[in-house]
Design a protein that fits this description.
InterPro entries: DsrEFH-like, Sulphur_relay_DsrE/F-like. Pfam families: DsrE (PF02635). It is built from 4 helices and 5 strands, in the order E-H-E-H-E-H-E-H-E. It is of the alpha/beta class. It has a 5-stranded parallel beta sheet with strand order 4-3-2-1-5, with helices on both faces. Helix 1 runs parallel beside helix 2. It is globular and about 35 Å long.
Length: 121
C-alpha cells in the first residue's frame, strides 16, 4: 500500500459527483492511516474558504464539512493551488484552519516522492 496519497480535485459544484468522490476517497484514506495530501484546484478552490463546503449538497453523499474535518483530524494536508487562489482573489488569511496555498512545484514534488500514489478528479 502507498505510504502517501496525493489527490488533486478540480471539480466543485460544477461536477458534484466527481468532487464528492475526491473528498470521500481522501477522508477514507486518511481514516485508514494513509498520509493524505488533498489539492484543491479549479472550482474546488472555493472549499478552502470557511463555510463554503457547507453550501455543497449531493444526495446520498457525506457532507463535505465532515469529510474535510476527517481529513484534518487524521493529519491530512489541504492545499489550494497558487494560481487558482490568485484568480479567485483568495489569500492565505482567508483559508480554513490548517489549509495552505502552494504551487505546481510543490504538487509535483509530493506526487513524485517514493511511495506516493496520485489521483486526479
Amino acid at each position: 500500500m502507498a505510504k502517501k496519497l496525493v489527490i488533486k480535485v478540480t471539480a466543485g459544484a460544477d461536477a458534484p459527483e466527481r468532487c464528492s468522490q475526491a473528498f470521500t476517497v481522501a477522508a477514507v484514506a486518511a481514516a485508514s492511516g494513509v498520509e493524505v495530501s488533498l489539492w484543491l484546484t479549479g472550482e474546488s478552490s472555493w472549499f478552502a474558504l470557511p463555510g463554503r463546503a457547507a453550501e455543497f449538497e449531493l444526495p446520498h453523499a457525506a457532507p463535505l464539512p465532515d469529510l474535510i474535518e476527517g481529513i484534518r483530524a487524521a493529519g491530512g494536508l489541504i492545499t489550494l493551488c497558487t494560481q487558482c487562489a490568485a484568480r479567485r482573489g483568495i489569500e492565505e488569511k482567508d483559508l480554513i484552519e490548517g489549509a495552505r496555498i502552494a504551487g505546481a512545484q510543490v504538487f509535483v514534488s509530493e506526487a513524485m516522492a517514493d511511495g506516493v500514489q496520485a489521483l486526479v478528479y
